[in-house]
Amino acid sequence: MNGEPALTYVYAVAAVAAVAPPLPALLSGIRGVEDAPVALLAPREAAPGAPAFVAGRVPAAHWSEEALRTRFEDLAWLEETARAHHHVVEALTAHTTVLPLRIATLYRDDDRALAALREQRSAFAERLALLAGHTEYGVKAYVAPDPETPGPGTGAAPGEAAAPAGAAPSSPGKAYLQARRAQHHAREDRYRQAGRAAERIAATAARYATRAVRHPVQTGPLSRGERGERGENVLNDAYLVPDDLADAFRTAVLRAVEDLPGVRVEVTGPWAPYSFATPTAPPAAPADSPGPRP
What we know:
Blueprint: E1 6-15, H1 23-27, E2 39-41, E3 51-59, H2 60-63, H3 65-71, H4 75-93, E4 98-107, H5 110-119, H6 121-131, E5 134-143, H7 172-205, E6 211-214, E7 232-242, H8 246-256, E8 263-271
Helix pairs in contact: 7-8
């Protein structure tokens, strides 16, 4: 840091000496936020397999509480920081079990970070044990967007047959109301199908997944699928799946809903287990940190 004040930035929790080559060797070429090097931070008395922080040092001037209030409103900075944070987590995930921590988990110095690590050692160890041999997968369901309703006088409703030859044509107002009713019924049908899809997905996933989290549905540009298809996101679940069941999980979930028209399902992953990093009742965070959560 060239002598300037620095803070300890923590990316994740991993187990000491849990892999070969050891974690310090794996971390030696990895750089994180602010392009800073990353290292293992563990108590000297830590036994093999004990939780350790994966951490780096960042300039205090850039990461103070006041500076972060402004920087978190800068979407370009936020995206760059999230990518750098995720790069570190992903690099570790390829070799060992990792408990990801949230962006900007900060301590005033290494000693404060180590004190927090000791305080939460049991919770961290329990969560690492839960995540071992598992990977996160996402399951998203979409319903087709509503067709545009024709204005009065534009003809038949979407999906309706034209009036037979010789039949009196509908008035513009009646045609418009028919179109609105047809749109309403189609929307109701799609949501019924989405409800069935959610029930089938939950029942199928329960046979494979260890844990499940239901996230809020996505809106706006985020609501588009992996390939950019249009549709309304109506289900946004995450599942913690044993690695040896991952292929069977993906196949079974997709097969469970393949006969439901109007609903599109995507299974995404594998991902680092961000959705399962936090237990139901986390311990209190240290006062000088936005707070790791085991």
